[in-house]
Amino acid sequence: MSPPRQTRVLGLGMCTAFVVGNVIGVGIFVLPASLAPFGLNALTGWLITVVGCAFLAISLSNLSRAFPNDDGPYTYTKRAFGDSIAFLTMWCYWFSTWVTNATIAIGVVGYLTVLIPGLNAIPWLPPAVALSLLWFFVVVNLIGARAAGWVQIMTTVLKLVPLLGVIGLGLWVLLTNPSAYGQHIPPNPASFDSLTGATTQTLFAMLGIECAMIPAGRVRNPSKTIPRATLIGTIVAAAIYIGVSAVPMLLIPQSTLAASNAPFADLFARVLGDRSGQVLALFVVIGGLGALNGWTMMLGELTQTMARHGSFPRFLAKENSNGAPTFALIATAAIASVMLLTNYSQSVAGMFALLNVVVTAGNLPFYFVCSLVVLLGAHRFPGISPLRSRLVKAAASGALLYCSWATIGIGAKPLAWAVGLLALGVLVYAVGRFLPTPAPAESTTQ
Q1: What does the pLDDT read at residue 63?
Q2: With the C-alpha atoms ordered 305, 333, 348, 281, is the resulting torsion angle positive or negative?
Q3: What is the pLDDT of residue 138?
Q4: Taking CA 283 as the corner, what is the angle to CA 280 and CA 287, rounded to the nearest 5 degrees?
Q5: Residues paired with 438 in a beta bridge
Q6: pLDDT tens track for 100-151
Q7: CATH number of the domain residue 180 falls in
Q8: Phi, psi of 134 (to 5 degrees)
Q9: Are 77 and 86 in contact (CB under 8 A)?
Q10: Is 343 contained in some domain?
């Protein structure tokens, strides 16, 4: 079933910006502190994650290349395993996505208080600002996918400025004072537990590499654009993450880095002075706004797709004159708003801990199932040669091994969340089967 779309408006630049902008969100600015306790195991964990995500990107890219007229992963999964597995897989992913939106909005406001301390003067003002940001990007996306795409490009370029600055600072120190890199090498020995823990943390950092394929029905020349954007975005995000993780790890004492609430600000302060922290906060806000815009679009597209397939009420599939899924965007923003208001009393750190658990739990079934689709069915992909089929299946096998490795280190709490989300999804799916649902409307291929 091909999705009804007025225009395919997303090109390679916009799709790549959605991948990079959604992968690199607010969490990157505290990631070095999270990885500090693992020592140099964190760099080995990054190596494993980069290879694993490359396998995932290859697998997802080949799904998009094989079925360019499908409306994303729901249809890919449905082709292979039927409607029930497709629903449960995308249900977990959908759940984690609106949790992401609420948490990013809270995180952005947390950094805004550094720039505007008066925000904390009135108790209701921070949650009101967070709600305003959440709904502002609903309005942006209601204007249309192209408007959201341009916002994503601008915010992605701006958020990369401080990150490239960290890498540039590291290179400058390497050229002018190379001995500095030998003064604070973490003493942690290599260990299996540290390696699996670091792999899980770095996987969480890379979630979002699939974002070019979620709005597949709005992408120009999807058989080429989505695979290229997925691979380019994954490589760019991974390279930046490794660079900005390694520099503070080697230049700041491990105990100091692990206790830091703003590791990049601490790094800049050592060279540029204390006021650099406010400059960094500005870029954190920009990065968070870009991620909020991107994930708002992903959530609207995913909700619309699930409604089109009969998994959600059909009115959620309706589009406005700009081709935007009006009711899907409004309904999911309302759900995220409720979560935002009920959890705002928690600290930002507490909210990101929740995000880590829920989002990782919601994404792993998605990665597992999509990799299985490729492994079991690549030889039947239209136009694929026997040699390429074997190479693609090898990549899918690598992706499955990586997901299994990440699951080992994920811990009991995320696994419990995953089981709970699946159980809730089974209940929702069962109830939906008893309710009258109109048959999906036929649509023409564009």
Answers
A1: 87
A2: positive
A3: 92
A4: 135
A5: none
A6: 888 788 778 877 776 777 777 777 888 888 889 999 999 999 998 888 888 8
A7: 1.20.1740.10
A8: -60, -45
A9: yes
A10: yes
Tell me how far apart the alpha carbons of residues 257 and 246 are, in angstroms, rounded to a whole number: 12
Residues 198, 201: Cα–Cα separation, whole Å: 5
Type of residue at 277: G
Burial (0-12, 13-18, 19+ Cβ within 10 Å), 347: exposed
443 within a domain of the structure (yes/no): no
Residues 6+ apart with CB under 8 A from 139: none
In what helix (H) or strand (E) does residue 252 lie, and over which residues does it extend? none
Angle between helices 263-272 and 222-251 (to 10 degrees): 60
Q: What share of the chain is helix, strand, coil (3-state, %, to 5)?
A: 80, 0, 20
Amino acid at 311: S
* 187 residue type, one letter: P
10 φ, ψ (degrees, to nearest 5): -95, 120
**pLDDT tens digits, one per residue of 38-72:** 888 888 888 888 899 999 999 988 888 888 877 78
Q: What is the predicted pLDDT for the residue at 273? A: 62
For residue 224 the two structure tokens come to 């080429």
Whole-angstrom distance, CA of residue 32 vs CA of residue 43: 11
CA–CA distance, 298 with 177 (Å, rounded to integer): 44
**Containing domain of residue 321, as a range?**
12-433
CA 275/CA 268 separation, integer angstroms: 9
Give the burial class of 192: count Cβ atoms within 10 A of its Cβ; 0-12 exposed, 13-18 middle, 19 or more buried.
exposed
pLDDT of residue 105: 83
Query: Residue 263: inside a domain, yes or no?
Result: yes
Q: Are 14 and 290 in contact (CB under 8 A)?
A: no
Q: Distance between CA atoms of 407 and 387, rounded to whole angstroms?
A: 31
- How many separate domains does the chain show? 1
Q: Is residue 198 part of a domain?
A: yes
Residues forming beta bridges with residue 10, ordered by sequence position? 219
Buried b (16+ CB within 10 A) or exposed e, 20-29: bbbbbbbbbb
Choose from 216-220, 296-300, 308-312 the range with maximum mean pLDDT.
296-300
Residue 219 dihedral angles phi and psi, to the nearest 5°? -95, 135
Alpha-carbon distances of 172 from 32, 43, 52, 167, 175, rounded to whole Å: 19, 21, 31, 9, 5
Phi-psi region of 310 (alpha: psi -120 to 50; beta: other; left: phi over 0): left
Residues 6 or more apart whose Cβ sits within 8 Å of residue 165: 268
